[in-house]
Each structure stands twice: as structure tokens, then as C-alpha cells.
Design a protein that fits this description.
Layout (H helix, E strand, L loop, with lengths): L5 H9 L6 H12 L7 H14 L3 E5 L5 H9 L5 E6 L2 H12 L7 E5 L2 H8 L9 E3 L17 E4 L6 H11 L5 E5 L19 H16 L3 E6 L5 E6 L2
Helix pairs in contact: 3-4, 6-7
The structure holds S-adenosylmethionine (SAM).
Length: 239
């Protein structure tokens, strides 16, 4: 189920400017291979907030094959760097190839490992035993050179783990930092009673509801939930 009428989404998307060719190809390949990448309408939200926020350091959790990371890098300011985290080996193989083709490849770092370990490494509280680094441009770089402060964080990984990631994310996010979480409305099912959700999906339903409650009730965040794409939570750290 789509949370916005498909005709309306199609119309809004038709107003979007075309992506550069390498991104169009990457988007097409990802969709053909059923890789779950960010939707067109959500891309517009990211581009808007990049322009508004002008970040210096971006962190993405959930690289998949590198589409949204390449998109963010394409539209980020000139003096910005992006670090992206992915754990699935098959995805990492594709991400390495694709990120090397990005126009701003030299401003991208791919952290390979489970996000919970990677976030702890970025926070200087974890060991790098299960996490490694790839620089798409071939630059020699070490994990310890990556910053522990990200003024733009995009979360797009396993939804059931968002609550576990949040404490680490909050430490990496400075005051005034922007934090965007994708796929929070779960095709609208999040608004339904858990009793109408199939037993198989109840855990994720409960976890996402807890996560959204936390984002909207913490006193150090201001959060709005946009019914765009599959739902995006946009948060700012206020203290
Ligand atoms: C929705 S896809 C990301 C799509 C990507 N952001 C894009 O739009 O091009 C989610 C990705 O998160 C990865 N992922 C899920 N849980 C993870 C974890 N605990 N640590 C690292 N990556 C994870 C999955 O392997 C998957 O590739």
C-alpha cells in the first residue's frame, strides 16, 4: 500500500529535475535488481535539507549498493564528507564499485560492518575488530580519522534496530544537527492497531511505534513525521 495516492506522487515526481546520468543508471540497476533504495519523492526531501543545512559531515546508516550515498554526495556542499555504513557482503561488493563511480568519490568513506559496531567505533567506544573501511577513491584512510560529529545523519537500515542505534546516533549528532529516518510509516501499517497486523509483522510494528514515540517525545529533539515516500521522520537536536 502507498501512503500517498500514486497519481499525486507521480505528478510531484514529474516536477523533479533529472538526476545526473551515473545516478540515473545506478537507480535503474538497483530497481531492476530489487534493491530497496530511496524513493524519488524522498530524494527531493534529502536534496532540500542538504541545501538548507549545508552540512560539513554526513553519516548514512544503510548503504545498500550506494545509490543514496552517491545522491547525497552529488548534492552536498563542496567542503562536505560523507560516511556510509553497510554490513551485508553482497551489497558491499556492489557499493564499492558504484561509489567509485560517484563524482565526489574522494569525499566518501564506506564503513563495512554492523552499524551498531560501526557507530561505536565512530563514537570511540568500540573496537575496530569487526569493522573496516573502504575509500572509493583509493585514498589511504583509517577508521580513527573519521570524525565523531555528524551534522546530517540519514538512517535507512533495518527498521527493527533503529531504537538500538539511537543512543549512538545521539552522541554523534551535535546540537542543531539534522537527523532523518526513512521508511517510518511502513506503508501506512504503522497507523493501524497491532491486532490488525499479521503476527509476523507485529514485532517490527511495535518497535517502529516505540521509535517514533521516542523521537517525538525526547526533550533534546524536535521531530516532524512527513508522509512522503514510505514516511520520513525529520529531527533536529535542540539541546
Ligand atoms: C533500505 S536499504 C538502504 C538503501 C540505501 N540507503 C539507498 O537508498 O540507496 C537498507 C540497507 O541497510 C543494511 N543494513 C540493515 N541492517 C544493518 C546493520 N545493522 N548494519 C549495517 N547495515 C545494515 C541492509 O543490508 C541494506 O543494504
Amino acid at each position: 500500500m502507498k501512503i500517498v495516492d500514486e497519481h499525486i506522487t507521480a505528478y510531484i515526481n514529474s516536477l523533479e529535475l533529472e538526476l545526473p546520468q551515473y545516478l540515473r543508471i545506478l537507480e535503474k540497476e538497483a530497481l531492476e535488481n530489487a534493491v530497496p533504495i530511496i524513493r524519488k519523492e524522498a530524494q527531493a526531501v534529502l536534496k532540500f535539507f542538504l541545501d538548507m543545512k549545508q552540512p560539513k559531515q554526513i553519516l548514512e546508516v544503510g548503504t545498500a549498493v550506494g545509490f543514496s550515498c552517491s545522491l547525497l554526495s552529488e548534492y552536498m556542499p563542496e567542503d562536505c564528507h560523507i560516511t556510509t555504513i553497510e554490513k551485508v557482503p553482497m551489497r558491499i561488493v556492489e557499493a564499492k564499485k558504484n561509489l567509485a563511480k560517484a563524482r565526489r568519490a574522494s569525499d566518501i568513506s564506506l564503513v563495512m560492518g554492523d552499524a551498531i559496531d560501526a557507530l561505536k567505533v565512530l563514537n570511540r567506544t568500540g573496537t575496530s575488530d569487526d569493522v573496516s573501511l573502504f575509500s572509493p577513491s583509493g585514498n589511504m584512510q583509517t577508521l580513527s580519522e573519521l570524525t565523531d560529529c555528524y551534522d546530517f545523519i540519514f538512517m535507512d537500515a533495518a527498521k527493527g534496530q533503529y531504537m538500538n542505534f539511537l543512543p549512538e546516533i545521539m552522541k554523534l549528532l551535535p546540537v542543531n544537527g539534522l537527523f532523518i529516518t526513512d521508511n517510518v510509516l511502513q506503508e501506512g501499517s504503522i497507523a493501524k492497531s497491532k491486532y490488525s497486523i499479521t503476527r509476523r509483522d507485529r514485532t517490527i510494528h511495535t518497535r517502529m511505534r516505540e521509535y517514533l514515540y521516542e523521537l517525538t517525545h525526547r526533550d533534546d529533539l524536535t521531530t516532524m513525521i512527513l508522509p512522503v515516500g514510505d514516511g520520513m521522520a525529520v529531527s533536529t537536536k535542540i539541546r
